[in-house]
Amino acid sequence: MDFLPSFATALTFIGTSLLLAATPGPDMTLSISRALSQGKTPALFVVLGTSLGIVVHTMLVAFGISALITASPLAFTILKTGGAAYLLWLAVQAIRFGSKLSVNAVEEPKRSPLSNMASGFWVNLLNPKVIIFFMTFLPQFVTAGDPGVTQKLLFFGFLFILVGMPVNALVVLASDKLASWLQDNRKVLRGMDYTFAGVFSIFAAKILFTHAR
Q1: What is the rounded distance in angstroms from the CA atom of residue 105 to the CA atom of residue 89?
Q2: Residue 31 in contact with residue 47, Cβ under 8 Å?
Q3: Using an 8 Å Cβ cutoff, are 169 and 31 in contact?
């Protein structure tokens, strides 16, 4: 069980993942919109699809980063440092522009469960922010000399899904009330923005100072 992280590391990862799952993005916007227009069951299939998209990102990062460590530990260190800078940039963007959640019950043809899954899958798979985020976020939790790096990255990726899916499902189940409540209470979203920015700033600083030593 060498792939299991320490309790403190796992707790940090779970807390950060929960915050990310609760932050509005394209996947949440799509699932809420689908819930309002077609019902909660179709929207839950969207959530399943977005999770499958994360599975693909997890596999690509786990095996790609492992190859990078083998080829060049220095390049891996540069990637982690760049990842910390990217997390800091995300924090600044959250403060400057804030969360965007604008959903409407748009009339559209009924979709099959497979079609709803495909919609969720592609919205996460082709989202550049998700791609860059996974390339920079997951490597922060492994070290270049770790022999079980592939297994750890896979563990963290699937843990991210395990944490995020219930949050997204709850959002769907409460979509009819949640969408209007969040849009009427913008201060709540701003509070989430500042929390997001604070956590990521601390996380980025920790990574950068660790590298400096």
Answers
A1: 33
A2: yes
A3: no
pLDDT digits (tens, 9 = 90+) for 107-156: 667 788 899 999 999 988 887 677 777 887 788 788 777 778 888 889 99
Q: How far is 103 from 100, CA to CA, in rounded Å?
A: 10
CA distance 191 to 146: 37
Pair 24, 99: CB distance under 8 Å = yes
C-alpha span between 196 and 191 (Å, rounded): 9
User: Alpha carbon 167 to chain centroid distance?
Assistant: 12
Global confidence as pTM: 0.78
Task: Give CA–CA dist 191/211, Å, rounded.
Answer: 31
Residue type, 169: A
